Amino acid sequence: MRCRNVLTRIDALRTNELAAGEAQEVHEHLGKCHDCEESLNDVVALARSVRTIAIQPPKSMRASLTATDRFDVVDAGGRPIFVAFSNRGLRMIHTGSSEEEFRTMYGERFGRELVRGALPERLRRQVAAAVEGEGVDSPVVDLDGGEFEQTVLGILTRIPRGEVRTYSWVAQQAGRPKAVRAVGNICARNVVPFVVPCHRVVPAGGGVGNYAFGSEIKRALLEREGVPVDELEEMAGKGIRFIGSRTTHIFCVPTCRDARRIRGDNRVAFHDEEEATKKGFRPCKRCQPAAA
């Protein structure tokens, strides 16, 4: 499919109006064409901006209108965390803002106002557990976004506590292996951090990478969850991406819980998938390192 044909279908792709086969063709083109992928991001951003344009209702109607989205404040070691939520789940989490700034941020993103309300205990426990590094197995969230964005965010929730994956691994899992930059943008726009753990996604070349609240907070979150960040950075400096076991001949991403059980004398380091497979090792079915 040519760029011209793709550009006429971008908005229909965003709203899930394309037939499955046609949508697949567009996705394949987007994975190869940086310019068209940027155009899609621009259309998504424009759609969000349009939602913020609200018409002021007549005064006689205002009393009958009620906001469905509410917010509350969760204390995290003396630091306030603002949490917006609906009847379906968490909508936005942010730290370091004033109440006024949080309201403004929410309105710009969702085009809706917030009213103060009591955060349901189930959601409060999830936010507290995520911030404290305990992790959340099944986040209860209520998010907007296109199909690919929803897919990526869903994949993030399946990265186990104490483990990390690369942006390229997430793109591969999402069915668009060349959309690494798009995955990075989705992680950067994640409005429910901590609970949807975008901090567990790191660059393939090493280091913890960027984070909305700063690299130091991301590093602290990972260490609190049990990720050996210093060890990962040391391996990255040597170009090591996978760890194999001499006894099972299985190779994993370094933070996979199975890899961390391998005894020191049985550990084999690999620079890439090809090196591992040439030496007779097969990929771990749990962490799926071949997607890295």
Kindly describe this structure:
The structure is a single chain. By secondary structure, the chain is of the alpha/beta class. It folds into four domains: 49 residues, no CATH class; 67 residues, Double Stranded RNA Binding Domain; 89 residues, Arc Repressor Mutant, subunit A (Orthogonal Bundle), CATH 1.10.10; 52 residues, 3-Layer(aba) Sandwich (DNA Methylphosphotriester Repair Domain), CATH 3.40.10. The strands form three sheets. A four-stranded mixed beta sheet has the order 3-2-1-4. Strands 9-7-8-10 form a four-stranded mixed beta sheet. Strands 5-6 form a two-stranded parallel sheet. The longest helix has 18 residues. The two termini are 28 Å apart.
Number of helices: 13
Which structural category fits the helices and strands?
alpha/beta
Low-confidence stretches: 59-67
**Strand order across the largest sheet:** 3-2-1-4
CATH superfamily of the largest domain: Winged helix-like DNA-binding domain superfamily/Winged helix DNA-binding domain
N- to C-terminal distance: 28 Å
**How much β-strand is present in the residues?**
5-15%
For the largest beta-sheet, the strand count, sense and barrel status come to: 4 strands, mixed
CATH structural fold name of the largest domain: Arc Repressor Mutant, subunit A
Q: If you compute it from the alpha carbons, what radius of gyration comes out, rounded to the nearest whole angstrom?
A: 21 Å
How do the SSEs run, as a string of H and E? HHHHHEEEHEHHEHHEHHEEEHE
Taking all residues together, what is the mean pLDDT? Answer: 86
Query: What would CATH call the architecture of the largest domain?
Result: Orthogonal Bundle
Assign the CATH class of the largest domain.
Answer: Mainly Alpha
Report helical residue fraction: 40-55%
